[in-house]
Design a protein that fits this description.
Radius of gyration: 15 Å
Order of helices and strands: HHEEHEEEE
Distance between the termini: 34 Å
Number of strands: 6
Strand content: 35-45%
Helix content: 10-25%
Oligomer: single chain
Number of helices: 3
Structural class: alpha+beta
């Protein structure tokens, strides 16, 4: 199948909606719900961590170790996903999209991220199996 922006109600849209649900649950602080949308052996390249995380608990551990004693991160206001392009081959999907991280503090600068994720359809639902974030240069 050709890479394309999702059409409402399509399998491509279902993948994008699953990603948007991950962002919504992240904003709500619901780590358990985020983990439910990911394969148990998901791998993640976080934009701020050098190591590859294997599973959500490992990602949380790496994030905690990366910032010991540092100032708390600013409160998130929104995680705005846009410009999705999704390719599906059977039970496997590849999605590319942009993400804008917005903070509650109006003085904080938005972070723009390019995101690529791989998904697997398991029992009629899409689970993330890999995610790669790349901070998009300003300007």
């Amino acid at each position: 199948m050709t890479a394309q922006p999702p059409v409402a109600g399509s399998p491509e849209d279902a993948v994008f909606l699953a990603m948007q649900e991950i962002y919504a649950q992240t904003l709500a602080g619901n780590v358990g719900a985020v983990a439910e949308l990911m394969h148990p052996e998901v791998t993640l390249w976080d934009s701020e961590i050098d190591a590859l995380a294997i599973g959500v608990p490992h990602l949380l551990e790496l994030r905690e170790r990366a910032t010991p004693g540092s100032a708390p991160e600013p409160e998130l206001l929104a995680l705005d996903a846009s410009d999705p392009v999704v390719s599906i081959w059977g039970d496997t999907a590849l999605m590319r999209h942009r993400l804008t991280v917005r903070f509650a503090d109006a003085e904080a600068t938005d972070i723009r991220i390019r995101n690529t994720s791989a998904w697997r359809r398991v029992e009629d639902r899409w689970l993330m199996v890999h995610n790669h974030e790349d901070v998009w240069p300003a300007g």
